[in-house]
Amino acid sequence: MNKTAKFAMTSLAAGVAFAALSSTAHAQQEWTMTTTWPDNLDLIKIDQHWVELVNTLAGDELQINFRAGGTLMPGTEVFDATETGAIDAAGDWPGYWAGRSPAFSPLATTTSLFNGVDYMNWILQWGGWDLYQEVYGNYNMVYLPYGITNNESGFMGNTPIESIADLEGKRLRLSGRDQGRVLEKLGGSQVTLAGGEVYQAIERGVIDAGEFSTPGVDYNAGFSEVADYWSTPGWHQSASVFGVMINKDAWDELSEDTQETLKIAAEATMAWSLAWSERQSTEATVKFKEDGVEISTLSEEDLAEIQDVTNEVILRGACEDPMHAKVYHSMISYMEHYANWRDVTVPFNMSRSIDNLPSLDELEACM
Q1: What is the rounded CA–CA span in Å between residue 316 and residue 41?
Q2: Could you tell me if 59 and 262 are in contact, meaning their C-beta atoms sit under 8 angstroms apart?
Q3: Which of 53, 13, 24, 3 shows the shortest CA–CA distance to 262?
Q4: How is 217-243 classified by DSSP, letter by letter?
Q5: Residue ranges with strand state E in 5-55
Q6: What pLDDT sits at residue 336?
Q7: Is the backbone peptide bond immediately before 38 cis, with ω within 30 degrees of 0?
Q8: How much is the pLDDT for 2?
Q9: C-alpha dihedral (81, 83, 85, 91), degrees to nearest 10
Q10: Residue 59's pLDDT is what?
Q11: No. of H helices and E strands in the chain?
Q12: Can you give the pLDDT at residue 264?
């Protein structure tokens, strides 16, 4: 072999070796991720499902080292840690950050508005995904919504709540800024407690009733052991969204293919989470009944009044913050647009048929 050929072969070998080395170096990329949920709350399973998918699908380029909530830092600190890059990612429920921006509240849940399918439609096809990026982007983060649960259980305690008149003077554990405002207009008072504290608060009579999540989560948290009564439906959180906050710098270091893989894993987890939650809720409802918990349901008249109050609260909040108004404007626009198809499919439609919604013109005036 002449010198020119030898040089060419040597250069080719060096190039292949360098490419392999670069690929190997990229494959060594690891993220540290935690969540707001401790091991003993079932909502952590949504985070775990996404992490397992990512580690399987993107394993050649990215591995996520996942730690349960509270093992690295308190759940209240994961937002700051992700924003600054102290950790690469964290699972969350957006409503926990409403103190930073009211817009986080409807990104997490709505009172008497969206159900789970509405959130999925809105996120994937009606512009919701972009709004998550806009709100979290103000804090140096990319956000992948990857969990949806349908409406929450309702209120459980040792005092029956069979109508909204029974809310008068009651102290109820309730999450969410907008939710608290609606409750106050209905005569109750909001008590803010961490999820792990609700059981003891009901048991000791610190609150008249409380809520945390779906029936499956609440049953596994032991609520049937301390509550005799269960008021349905869970109007205060008609559906909920969960997802992963990702530090923007960490996200930008990924290849476009890997970023797309993480998005695909998020969409797959979103679909899984809704079905998983509904199965859990069904099985748990059976168990609550077997344990002797008495279930009551609010009348259509009461639910209509709650809708009226909800509309007032949405408009009030919208005019306090333009981004809050922008999110709700998008949501109400979706509801009105989807109604063109939804309302001709009753009773087989997947979404709620609502003829009493906040005014789009009033929302737009607040933007």
Answers
A1: 34
A2: no
A3: 53
A4: HHHHTTGGGT-SEEEE-EEEEEEEEEE
A5: 30-35
A6: 96
A7: no
A8: 52
A9: 60
A10: 86
A11: 14, 11
A12: 98
